[in-house]
Backbone:
């Protein structure tokens, strides 16, 4: 029988959210053990995850506070303005950051985020990474959690955190009820080079078939301008669009863009992701907490998916660090309750708001279009509503965990 | 640990399980625990000038928890680095506490019996939470606590106040609604802050900080200036 390796928490899932959580805990002296079945070389290969993420400024402040932001220097593109419109008709709504405010968010390629996190995790002496590794048995008992891995290693901690993504096996095994429905849409994502500069503007254009977003990225080494696109289409249409030749696809893309950025060249492989909305009715159980997509996943039109997960990280870190400094068992039910109260409702409200937005913009017809245009105009004319949207985009609304203000706990 | 026959160990195991069940008969104590631990932590940091981010503020220090039950406070004190002694009048509580600490991998010196008759050394930190309202002679109890406090040490006590509000809330409402086991509290034995302060002064101590603990709808218990329901205080040598 091998020795048991003990840490403060076991994190199942070493993706963006799981690694950020381990680093946030490490920054406060708490140790973790990450388990992930993926091959560490594959997850940072160029064709593994072609997505780009909008890191809200609150999320960025946390990455800065835990020492990750410096590893991302020069890799991001600030979003200075979010331009929202109903199709390409007039009545557009723009959210612009005031000059003295920070950016509304910063765009990064997921691959760059993964590399920065991997390097930071490798340098931390408070994080043990078991990757690739699978849990053979997981026991959550009255005194703690014990996991046996497929290589025979045994690890123990007072708390298990599932950061396993939307198909979280730990969550499903725990029998948590899921509220979910599929949008019957897929997002086609990819990277483009374009003729005109994006001027740090993110475009969200709502078409009846689904929203179309252009997200600014840093210029390429050869000086060409670059953006990522997220194009929601009916699931039935996605396969056909993926099969189109590059020229045909580019033409379809340019139609949606209406010449906003001039001529377009594809520079990254297209990929399709099914879109859905899901929310776990509970995000904690006995010695178990869910973070990120394991707890809740939302439509990416508002760019909030990863930020929601990072808010989970900030809140759970604060709960656990506070608990450790009070000498509490880190799996204590009072700590789980605090995290549940903090993140259960907040993430649901963002999920529901995003879902309503998607459905509103998914209705066809002239009347619906008029409602949407009127709705957008109304938001534009109502400063408090607009600043609420702005602070939601920045990730600053709700009861803020300290890490999201850039302070450690 | 005294030798325990298996059937007894099982009994104390289930007793410990009930004590430690956050939804069991000690649910109210579990909800109170983070708040009173926060108070104790602030008192420790203030008394010894420790940074509030330190994970083991009691490293190298000794702590005594009197009326420890199954160890709801003793275990956190041990995790904060103290070498902890827990005392409880009820032997079954002490056995339950030992079973639970062993499961947690914590080393805590648990003793059953009456504090004054146990021949204990002096401790840097002495705590006794929600106990003085249950003892026969509060002044003698306070003296026995003071006798176990080391020079330069810190004492932290908590107890319900004797007010109309506490009678309505703690005795009538909480016990009738099943929030607290029936018969837990005898309101006439509750001690007012000024009475406890006088007892501590008679024992050669002075009160440092006095803080109220009140239930807030939807937020659990919060610390504040209202002492009418329950209060915590710190004491040290004059």
Residues:
């Amino acid at each position: 029988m091998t020795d048991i390796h003990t840490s403060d928490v076991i994190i199942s899932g070493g993706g963006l959210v799981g690694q950020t959580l381990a680093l946030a805990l490490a920054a406060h002296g708490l140790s973790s053990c990450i388990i992930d079945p993926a091959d560490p070389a594959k997850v940072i290969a160029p064709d593994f995850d072609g997505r780009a993420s909008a890191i809200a400024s609150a999320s960025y402040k946390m990455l800065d506070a835990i020492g990750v932001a410096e590893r991302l220097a020069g890799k991001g593109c600030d979003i200075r303005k979010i331009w929202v419109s109903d199709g390409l008709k007039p009545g557009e709504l723009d959210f612009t950051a005031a000059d003295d405010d920070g950016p509304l968010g910063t765009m990064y390629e997921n691959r760059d985020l993964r590399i920065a996190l991997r390097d930071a995790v490798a340098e931390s002496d408070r994080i043990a990474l078991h990757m690739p590794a699978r849990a053979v048995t997981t026991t959550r008992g009255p005194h703690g959690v014990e996991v046996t891995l497929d290589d025979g290693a045994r690890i123990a901690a007072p708390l298990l955190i599932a950061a396993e993504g939307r198909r979280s096996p730990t969550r499903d095994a725990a029998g948590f009820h899921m509220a979910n429905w599929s949008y019957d849409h897929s997002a086609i994502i990819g990277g483009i080079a374009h003729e005109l500069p994006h001027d740090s503007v993110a475009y969200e254009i709502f078409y009846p078939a689904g929203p179309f977003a252009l997200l600014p990225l840093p210029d390429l080494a050869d000086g060409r301008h670059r953006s990522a696109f997220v194009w929601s289409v009916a699931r039935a249409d996605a396969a056909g669009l993926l099969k189109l030749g590059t020229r045909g696809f580019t033409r379809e893309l340019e139609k949606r863009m209406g010449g906003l950025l001039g001529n377009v060249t594809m520079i990254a492989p297209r990929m399709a992701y099914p879109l859905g909305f899901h929310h776990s009715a509970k995000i904690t159980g006995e010695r178990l907490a869910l973070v990120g997509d394991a707890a809740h996943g939302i439509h990416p039109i508002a760019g909030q998916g990863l930020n929601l997960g990072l808010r989970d990280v900030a809140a759970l870190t604060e709960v656990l660090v506070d608990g450790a400094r009070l000498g509490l068992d880190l799996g204590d039910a009072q700590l789980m309750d605090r995290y549940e109260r903090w993140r259960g409702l907040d993430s649901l409200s963002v999920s529901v708001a995003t879902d309503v937005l998607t459905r509103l913009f998914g209705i066809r017809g002239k009347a619906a279009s008029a409602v949407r245009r009127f709705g957008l105009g109304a938001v534009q004319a109502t400063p408090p509503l607009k600043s609420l949207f702005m602070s939601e985009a920045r990730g600053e609304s709700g009861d803020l965990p300290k890490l999201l203000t850039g302070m450690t706990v | 640990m005294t030798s325990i026959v298996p059937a007894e160990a099982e009994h104390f195991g289930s007793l410990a399980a009930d004590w430690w069940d956050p939804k069991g008969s000690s649910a109210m104590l579990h909800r109170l625990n983070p708040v009173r631990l926060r108070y104790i932590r602030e008192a420790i940091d203030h008394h010894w000038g420790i940074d509030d981010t330190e994970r083991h503020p009691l490293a190298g220090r000794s702590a005594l928890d009197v009326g420890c039950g199954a160890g709801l406070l003793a275990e956190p004190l041990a995790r904060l680095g103290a070498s902890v002694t827990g005392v409880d009048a009820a032997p079954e509580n002490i056995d339950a506490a030992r079973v639970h600490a062993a499961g947690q991998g914590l080393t805590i010196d648990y003793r059953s019996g009456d504090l004054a008759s146990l021949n204990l050394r002096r401790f840097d930190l002495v705590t006794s939470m929600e106990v003085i309202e249950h003892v026969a002679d509060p002044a003698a109890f306070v003296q026995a606590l003071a006798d176990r406090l080391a020079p330069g040490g810190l004492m932290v006590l908590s107890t319900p106040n004797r007010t109309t509000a506490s009678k309505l809330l703690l005795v009538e409402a909480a016990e009738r609604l099943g929030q607290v086991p029936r018969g837990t509290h005898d309101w006439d034995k509750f001690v007012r802050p000024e009475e406890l302060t006088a007892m501590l002064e008679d024992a050669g101590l002075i009160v440092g900080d006095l803080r109220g603990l009140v239930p807030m709808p939807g937020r659990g218990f919060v610390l504040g200036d209202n002492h009418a329901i329950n209060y915590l205080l710190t004491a040290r040598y004059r």
